[in-house]
Amino acid sequence: MINPPTGEITIFERGKKFFELSNHLGNVLATVSDKKIGVDANTDGTVDYYTADVISAQDYYPFGQLQPGRQYGTKGRYGFNGKENDNEVKGMGNQQDYGMRIYDPRLGRFLSVDPIAKDYPELTPYQFASNTPIQAIDLDGLEAKTAIEGFAKAMKYGYNSLVIQMVDAGHGDVQTQIYSLKAHTNSADFTKLKTQFLSEPDKLTDNFFAEYEQIPRAQATEGKLSNGDEIAIWPSSGFVHFTVVPVFVRAVQADETTNSFNVAFATLEGHPEAGYVSFSGTFNEKDKTVEIKIITETREVWQISRLGPSRGMQQRQWAIVIGNFRKFLNIEKKDAEHKIHIETYKYDKDKPMGKGERTSEYEKNDIDDEIKEEKK
To answer: What is the pLDDT of residues 123-171, one digit of tens each?
Structure first.
């Protein structure tokens, strides 16, 4: 592949990029590459279907020990709870670094005393995830984090009991992602798009990586998205759910005018990201153009964030969603301006949205907004 501005030749080889598939605890169950394998079922020289290029697969006992006879291929960098394996010390998957402490999954115990043991006198100072490894993970060797706590709480007390996760509730850097689409259209088509998104947003947001389901609410404005509405998000792969429970977001802003709409969602407890995502659209009567934007400002929360990893999949899915908006407007990709802009910041609790020093910036003026079938 030749980069026209520089003439630089780039060689891209399939099978060198890997995706880690995890469950609700962030446990890496399988690793696949970006290469697909054609299968000629009846040996007629034509590919009948494709299978994934599976690099590795494994199952775990509840506290994380690898199950003998349930392992395949070359193990990846991450494993139980999505934590990094330290294979040089005790062998494959037998020791993990949780940041604050070292963990041995064969024992189901940390190798040193919990630094905050005094706050939990009911627990042994060496325990893992409060001794509830089926429903909880250990964030960093300090406290357990229940991966299904949001769903369980919603089922018991109702969706409105779920607390909004502010950026401060996350871990690590703050990342801002902006996806934009600009193209010529007409007022009637923009109005149809606005009506569709405000009434059934899932028709535009469903994609290869996630399905969205609006939760019925007694106080909701009939037939229209409004403040307080919750949406369940089912992480998926090719529209097949790969987590046992969904995560949730809540509409905190839902505004519209004749030529615009703006809807912002906050993530709720149990979601792998803490922060906000907004969808906006404007129609310019003067030059007959539409501009659609998706903006996210988040920090990671728990270890399902290792899935893919989550931000990589997040970037891919929002690019596809922008494509869904474009297709709804019957606009060809060649007739639209696409842009993706990503900035990463060190977290600073004293700054707006926790955005301290900017550590990286990335921009691309062309977005791959489709899942393509590639030639063999």
So the answer is: 888 988 888 787 677 766 666 666 567 787 888 888 889 999 999 988 8
Spatial separation of the C-alpha atoms in residues 14 and 34, rounded to whole Å: 6
Q: How far apart are CA 55 and CA 41, in angstroms?
A: 22
Distance CA 18, CA 56 (A): 10
Residue 262, Cβ density class (10 Å: 0-12 exposed, 13-18 middle, ≥19 buried): middle
| Alpha-carbon separation of residue 76 from 276, 340, 371 (angstroms) | 31, 29, 25
CA dist 31 and 285 (Å) reads 49
Cα–Cα distance measured from residue 212 to residue 201, given in angstroms and rounded to the nearest whole number: 8
Give bridge partners of residue 145 from the DSSP assignment: 137
This model's pTM is above 0.85: no
Q: 275: closest CA among 210, 339, 226, 347?
A: 347
Query: For residues 83 and 5, which has the higher predicted lDDT (pLDDT)?
Result: 83
Phi, psi of 131 (to 5 degrees): 60, 30
Question: Which residues lie below 8 Å from residue 181, measured CB to CB, with a gap of 6+?
Answer: 290, 291, 292, 293, 322, 325, 326, 336, 337, 338
Residue 167 and residue 274 in contact, taking contact as beta carbons nearer than 8 Å: yes
Name the amino acid, one letter, at 329: L
Element at 203 (helix H, strand E): helix 202-205
